[in-house]
Structure formats: structure tokens, C-alpha cells
Amino acid sequence: MSVKTPITVAYGDGIGPEIMRATLSILEAANAPIEPEVIEVGEKIYLEGFTSGIPDSAWQSLKRTKVLLKGPITTPQGSGYKSLNVTLRKTLGLFANVRPCTSYAPFVATKHPDMDLVIIRENEEGTYAGIEHRQTDEVYQCLKLVTRPGCERIIHYAFEYARKFNRKKVTCLSKDNIMKMTDGIFHQVFNEIAAEYPDIKNEHMIIDIGTALVADQPERFDVIVTSNLYGDILSDVAAQIAGSVGLAGSANVGNHVAMFEAIHGSAPDIAGKNIANPSGLLNGAIQMLIHINQPESATLIENAWLKTLEDGIHTADIYSKEYSKIKATTDQFAAAVIERLGQKPAHFKPVSYQQDVRAKIECYGAKKKTLAKKELVGVDVFIDNPAMMPNDIGEKLQKITGKLKPIIITSRGLKIWPDCMIDAPYANHCSCRFQTTTDMKALGQISHQDIIDLLQQFDALGLDVIKTENLYTFDGKPGFSLAQGQ
User: Fold this and answer.
1) Are 106 and 48 in contact (CB under 8 A)?
2) Of the candidates 375, 394, 373, 376, which has an alpha carbon nearest to the alpha carbon of residue 385?
3) Cα separation, 395 vs 308, whole angstroms
4) How confident is the prediction along the chain (486 residues), in pLDDT tens digits per residue?
5) Which of 280, 309, 282 shows the shortest CA–CA distance to 29?
6) How far is C-alpha 61 from the chain's CA centre?
7) Which candidate, 197, 120, 186, places its Cα nearest to that of 152?
8) Are the beta carbons of 433 and 380 closer than 8 angstroms?
9) Could you tell me if 297 and 281 are in contact, meaning their C-beta atoms sit under 8 angstroms apart?
10) d(CA 432, CA 393)
11) Which of 73, 175, 180, 314 is the most exposed place for a label (fewest CB within 10 A)?
């Protein structure tokens, strides 16, 4: 008898319990060597007072098993409740979100019958850090934080995934024509790591045209790697045009723990009706079996699932008059998959996962490098300005004495002083940049005391400072962007 691998199971909310029971029944019938350990998370736990949606006992289970198969979760409306998915991803270091998006034509309707791509999304950084501030009566801020190690880790993972799964090309999507530093480092690291994989084709696209091409010509893509927000949007687009969001599974992978789920939500409107499609969670479970190195079980179940689709046993969400023979309930669909265990599809190419080849990937993204010489050369001082026009602010700033001089005033990244070319600039929220000189090649180093002295003068002038951002050079190169129009 083979040793069973312990896994943690969370049934979830809404349709979660129904599709989890169906999925586990298939795994059991396939004799998958797993030992489920059930935890309770989600809406009930939130309402018991755990604002994260997960109790301490569940954390202990995850530390033991390091594998979670999770049903969809409902986060109660109202303040104080944090997304459990985000909490799990960040707490457990699940840096890679892996979403295969494959069409199953003609049995599942799609305009893209040859679509077969995988989206690998960075899972911990970017705007999803959730660092937001209200700065004035009208202005709100969300910080986008990107680290070099985070970029290295997810891009390395994408190339390792492509190599292990015999994929031929990795495409990087970013917006570094606009966000030249945050998206720029993502693109730069992609180029560096791509050079280490000469056997795999690589390309970069701007996210907007890349998304348009995924929607129009998905068959031209193989593996896509991108940052958090872009990947979240893109993977839902890709899953939908493949035929149905309800079929797509998702893996959230770290170096030590992994979570597997369907990409769809808890669908409370159909909960308890025994009509939900368990395929998304089942495909997540197949990813889990590969991750824990049980390729035989993964092969057996996926071939049976494909045969079920071919035989026209479809739940209501993918039912069609042309290709469906039975409109199956959740339980009936699971029973149909179980009945076909050991069979192979005829229309679809049978899958065959090989032992050890597709075991988990570990990527740490911590290349050693020489630290750049970092020098403080200026400061951006943000003010809440409900009354003054840009020239009035500039006139006040010119009264400031000391090492630092007013260089430019911007609003939402656009220059509004000096020499403003805009008829009616928005000046209620301004950034006032101070440096020793306007010559970017001759910036003088300053101290924190210089900034303190500057802020004291802002206070004396009656200017409402809401934030400061230090300006640094790294090996003499600016670590900050110029304003639009500067």
C-alpha cells in the first residue's frame, strides 16, 4: 500500500461544499493516495469574530500538510473583513498563481478551439499590497510596490514551468512604456532570466495590446508571465474566452506551501441546488496531484473527465443542444467521471503525466549583487491645496531659503509650475519637488536635516504637507521619474 499524502481541505461557502464533495468522491474512486484533513474557513468563521476568515487551528493544519484544496469563500460585506485568499497567499508565501486556460471545443462552446495557454501571475506585490491612503478631501492614493527579488522569483518560475511542462515560449506582459520603473524592472528582469533559457522562446508585449491579442488570437500564446493586477484581469478574460470560467482550476504556489482551487466564486444564487459544475475545482485538484507527485492519479482523473465531456455529460452552465446528451446535476457529473475512470478520450489527446518530471518547482529570486551607491538628492513634498493657483504656490516656494530649491510643481504627475501650459490645472493636490539644482547631472547630496529644515518653512508658510517622498540616485542614476511635461 502506498503512503498517503496528507492534504488540508476547506469546503468553503455557497456552492463550495457541493463541488468539494463531488471532487473528493472522484479522488477517492480513483484511489488517489491522499489523506484529507478538513478545516473550516470562510463566512461562518468571519461571523464568529475571526476577521481574517481563518482560525488558529486551520493555520496549524496548513503548517503540517503544506497543501490546501479549497472551495470558494464568501467574504461578508461590511468593514473589517479581509479577503481570505489574499491573506493565505501572502501569509504562506504563495508567490505564483498558475491558471491553465484550455478550450474544449466543440463540446464547450468557444470561438478559439485551439487555445491552450497558461497564465503565471505574480501573487504578492503590486497594487494588491493594499496600501492606500486618503490624502485630501478629493484625492486617494494606492501604492504599487515591486521588488527585484519578487520579479526574479515569478519570472524564474515561469521559465521553469515552461521547461518542465514542455512549453515552447514565455511571453512577458507589462506597461513599462508608462510605469518605467515598477514595470520597467519586471521587463528588465525578464530579459535577464530569459537569457538563461536559450531553449525557450521569449517575447515582451505591452499589457494592453497583449490582452487584446489574448482575446482575439489566444492560440499564439503558450506561457504568459505578468504582475499581480494584470494577471488577475487577464486570467479571467482567458478562462472565459476558452469556454467557461467554471472549468478553470487555479494553483497558488510557494516554495513550501501550495493552495489549489477553482477560479470562480461561491455563487450563492445556485448554492444547494445540486447544479454547480465541479470541473473548476476538479482541475485544481488535478494540479494538486501533479504538485504532490502523484502523476498516475492525475492522468487517470483528467482522462476520465475529458471522456465525460466528449460523451455529452454536461452541467447546465455548458449544456448545448448540439453536443450535450444529458444535463447533469453536480452529483451526476461526478458519477459520470467516476464511471469513466480507466477510459481515455477519443476526440481529445489523452494526457499522460510522467513520474517526477512535473514535481513542484522552487524559486527563491535572491540573486546576489553589488549594492548600488545610494545618495539622497531631493524631496517631493505633497500638499493639500484647496485654494491657491499654481503660480501662487510657486511664489510662496521661492521664499524658501537653504540648500534645497523649488524645481517643479506637479499635479497627478503633470507639470503645473513653472510655465504651466494648461488652462485650468487641477491644483488641489500638488507635489513640490526640491533639489539643489535643475541640472540632473549635477545633483548635490543633501541630508535628512535639510528636509526637516525645508518642512519647517512649509509650516511657517501655512502650506499643508500631507506626504514627503525622498529622491535618491543609485550609482548616479535617478531613482525617480520626471514629471509629464518636464
Assistant:
1) no
2) 394
3) 75
4) 468 999 999 999 999 999 999 999 999 999 999 999 999 998 888 888 888 889 988 999 999 999 999 999 987 776 567 778 888 888 899 999 999 999 999 999 999 999 999 999 999 999 988 889 999 999 999 999 999 999 999 999 999 999 999 999 999 999 999 999 999 999 999 999 999 999 999 999 999 999 999 999 999 999 999 999 999 999 999 999 999 888 999 999 999 999 999 988 899 999 999 999 999 999 999 999 999 999 999 999 999 999 999 999 999 999 999 999 999 999 999 999 999 999 999 999 999 987 655 456 877 766 667 889 999 999 999 999 998 999 999 999 999 999 999 999 999 999 999 988 888 889 999 999 999 999 988 999 999 999 999 999 999 999 999 999 999 999 999 999 988 877
5) 282
6) 25
7) 186
8) yes
9) no
10) 9
11) 180
C-alpha cell of residue 382? 505633497
In whole angstroms, give the CA distance from residue 448 to residue 345. Answer: 69
Q: What is the DSSP letter of 451?
A: H
Q: Cα–Cα distance between 18 and 276 in angstroms, integer? A: 8
**In the beta sheet, which residues pair with residue 376?**
472
- CA triplet 62, 65, 70: central angle to 5 degrees? 60
Taking Cα atoms as reference points, which of 384, 408, 371, 381 lies closest to residue 484? 408
In the block, which residue shows the cell 470562510?
Answer: 42
Q: Report yes or no: 20 and 12 within 8 Å, Cβ to Cβ.
A: yes
SS3 at position 343 = coil
